[in-house]
Amino acid sequence: MRLAVLLAASIIASGQTGRDPGAVLDASRDRLREAARSLDNYVCIETLDRSYYQRVETGGAARLEFTDRARLEVTVSHGRELHSWPGATRFDARDVDELIRDGPVSTGAFGAYLAGVFDQPAVAFQYAGAIPADGRTLFEYRYQAPLAGSRFLVRVGAGWLPTAYEGQFRIDPESLDLEQFTIRTSQVPPGAGFLEAGATLDYQRVAIGASQVLLPRHSQLEIRLEGGRETRNAVAFSGCREYRAESEIVFEAPPETENSAAPRAGRGRVALPIGLPVALALEAPIDTASAAAGDPVAARVLKSIRRPGSGEELIPAGAVARGRIRRVEHHLLPREYFLVAVSFNRVEMQGIVSPFVARSAPDPELARDLGANLGMQGTGLSFWGVGTFLFRAGRGRTAIPAGFVSQWFTLAAGGR
Fold it and tell me: 75-80: long-range contacts at Cβ-Cβ below 8 A with a sequence spacing of 24 or more?
């Protein structure tokens, strides 16, 4: 009976579109395997907008607590997604959660999902029917990926464990293009810290050079956490380009460099005592409507830094400290406010680049009044090498102007 139903559905679909669902699946799988493999040749900017919800009671509406944003560059190497900070000269083979240390992160949207399903012999497929969409007819298929051979990995403690997953996808039977793809898993290993996860991706072809590359137009990952919390991660890709040979992939990077590009006119090391005051003025504005963790940031030293006692000039006025934004968050509960965290890792002065680590503490009274969440994940001191700034919300955004002056204190370089 089941065979007869599937055969009837196949005949109906074939009559509507002139294409056989089995033949369409075989042909599209071949194309999607090649599409996944070709992503090794490309790099894109990946912007991650995350929303955090709290469900007060079972079945009740989820309340939005806060949002944040992060930005990375992404490519694929041997079926694995690799990331770097925007503008970096090297890709980092560390896991993405070692770059973005706060909040849930995942990989797969750029290309690993496709490779894990369409380039995996153990995955089972089933035709689910013809679906009308915008005057066209799409073929929908279901798939199941067993635990054995699964490429869907979940972090548990310090390691990664595979989990079974399933989903469906829609194919245009005329163009053989993938239109939509979903993936979900609820068989989560104990200790993973979440209960279930699922993603929906809408695809399009993007012109990169002379090629038309299949990439998600929109991707949303939903994660149900323990304790009634949920997150929704929206991913967008932009600024795609062909991968260039001069880029590097590094497997171990000193924390103080964060894989950032730096002028090569000269390199030096200025030994800065701990606790020296530094006044820094932003070179460019930071607008919470568009800024993201990972974006480069620069600030000018307003007054020369001198060694106590001897008066020796260690860093002249006008030197430029460079680093990256670490957090851009919009909190709604219990009070509405914005949190922007910045860290610097080097200073440029007279053609010399030297390590530079400093701290700027937020206003404690304002933090208490807002009920601000200042903690950060990772090892070492929570605020080591980070400046955290709080702003009362206004009209849904905050723009920190160029020239904004903040007070910092030096720390030991490479201390984190």
Answer: 75/39, 75/40, 75/42, 75/43, 75/44, 75/110, 75/243, 76/36, 76/39, 76/40, 76/110, 76/111, 76/112, 76/115, 77/40, 77/249, 78/40, 79/36, 79/112, 79/115, 79/119, 79/151, 80/112
Residues 6+ apart with CB under 8 A from 317: 301, 302, 303, 304
Q: Is the same domain home to 303 and 188?
A: no
Q: How confident is the model at residue 187 (pLDDT cuts 50, 70, 90)?
A: confident
- The string of DSSP letters for 89-154 reads SEEE-S-HHHHS-SS-----TTTHHHHHHHT-TT-EEEEEEEEEETTEEEEEEEEEE-STT---EE
Please tell me the total count of domains within the chain.
2
Q: Domain range spanning residue 82?
A: 2-250
User: Does residue 62 sit in the same domain as residue 137?
Assistant: yes
User: Which pairing describes strands 320-331 and 277-282: parallel, antiparallel, or unpaired?
Assistant: unpaired
Residue 38 lies in a domain: yes
pLDDT in tens, 141-162: 999 999 887 878 888 877 888 8
- Of the pLDDT bands very low, low, confident and very high (cuts 50, 70, 90), residue 19 is confident
CATH number of the domain enclosing 338: 2.40.128.260
298-332: pLDDT as tens digits = 999 999 999 998 989 999 999 999 999 999 999 99
Q: What pTM was computed for the model? A: 0.84
